[in-house]
Amino acid sequence: MKKRIFVTTLALTFFIPLLLYVSISGNHPTNIDLIPQMDYDLTDWDPNFDVMQDFTPEIVNKMEMFSDRAIFTRNLDSQELELEEFSEPLFRPFSEDGFYGTDSSWGSADLPSISMYDVDSRVIIGSDDRRHITNLQAHPNGYAAVVFLEVTFPNGVTGTGSGTMVGPTTILTAGHVLFSLTHGWATSIRVTPGGTQSNFSSAWATSFSTTNGWVNSSANNPNFDFDYGVIRIGQNLNTGWFGARTETNSTLNNGTAMVIGFPGDKARGTMWYDTGSISNAATRSFRHFADTVGGNSGGPVVLINNWQYVVGIHVAGNQSQQFNLAARVTTDVIDMILNNQ
């Protein structure tokens, strides 16, 4: 088991992110300030909280033996925790164009014209050009499939994040929304399609899954390559859903990303988006240059010319070098989605 080092010095804002110095595999440099972008509201936070308190000796042994892509599953009713290893892909969904992925519930004709976004591929992260999405009812099967997540942890911490409907009852999000490396497992998650300005009903998560690679990393060296997971809810909220698909390095590096979510510096639960270029596509992650803050964690990263398909999950931001990081949709991500439909 990797030794866990707890970060007790926090950047003091109304919502308080953790400052983490990490090494990123692939094409990313080491020792960068990467901040997981979930909004934490610390009420009675105990810096000595043991995030491993729910792990049995059997689970700990499996964490050592299993690969990073092994899947943790947490049942929120029973609080039972399981860890499973899959030696082969769970599914091989057919795709006519040769890409591995899942379908969205709508076609491109159902989506608003991309011209409405005033796309600028020269987005500068240093200036804030995020735009507020208010016409949720005009395109309910697009925007309402991006969901606002209100998360409670066992040690007096609450937080907010973002997610994407990728099936009638399945939500794709960041792993650190589900398991915090300093606050432990989420104990409840409220899901609101479209956020607080929509007319859709909320639902509560019944269970969720994330990866061994994320849970078995540490607060001083988080493994963002495996910072993804899925949430299951017990009812179909009739929002429609995004597809998810793998893309080539070339397509990503030459593409323009749109990131949608619920940033914590805006009115609570309101939806915003920004666009920006993509670079440094690695095996399991890529950089993007759309503006984000705490609360955007877990939100969809899509390509503006094909935005009914998620190609990444927004997970972190780099303040000093001015870029953001997404966990890339890989075959492992697709398998997790399909195993939780």
Write up this protein.
This protein has helices at 57-65, 140-143, 175-178, 212-215, 249-253, 331-339, and strands spanning 21-23, 30-36, 39-42, 71-75, 81-84, 101-102, 131-132, 146-152, 157-165, 170-173, 179-180, 184-185, 188-193, 203-211, 229-233, 243-245, 256-261, 272-279, 285-288, 300-303, 309-318, 323-328. The protein is mainly beta and 341 residues long. It folds into 2 domains: 21-88 and 143-233, Thrombin, subunit H (Beta Barrel), CATH 2.40.10; 101-142 and 241-339, Trypsin-like serine proteases (Thrombin, subunit H, Beta Barrel), CATH 2.40.10.10. The strands form 3 sheets. Strands 17-18-19-22-21-20 form a 6-stranded antiparallel beta barrel. Strands 8-9-10-15-14-13 form a 6-stranded antiparallel barrel. β9 and β10 form a beta hairpin. The longest helix has 9 residues, at 57-65. The chain starts with 20 loop residues before the first strand and ends with a helix. Residues 1-32 and 108-124 have low confidence and may be disordered.
Question: What series of H and E elements makes up the topology?
Answer: EEEHEEEEHEEEHEEEEHEEHEEEEEEH
Q: In DSSP terms, counting alpha (H) and pi (I) runs of 4 or more, how many helices?
A: 6
CATH topology of the largest domain: Thrombin, subunit H
Indicate how many domains the architecture comprises.
2
Give the overall average pLDDT.
Answer: 79
* Extended strand count: 22
CATH architecture of the largest domain: Beta Barrel
Main sheet attributes: strand count, strand direction, barrel closure = 6 strands, antiparallel, barrel
Structural class: mainly beta
Calculate Rg over CA atoms: 18 Å
> What would CATH call the class of the largest domain?
Mainly Beta
- The coarse overall form would be globular
Segments where pLDDT lies below 50 for 5+ residues? 1-32, 108-124
* Full CATH superfamily name of the largest domain: Trypsin-like serine proteases
- Strand residue content: 25-35%
DSSP helix fraction: 10-25%
Distance from first to last alpha carbon: 31 Å
Strand order of the largest sheet: 17-18-19-22-21-20
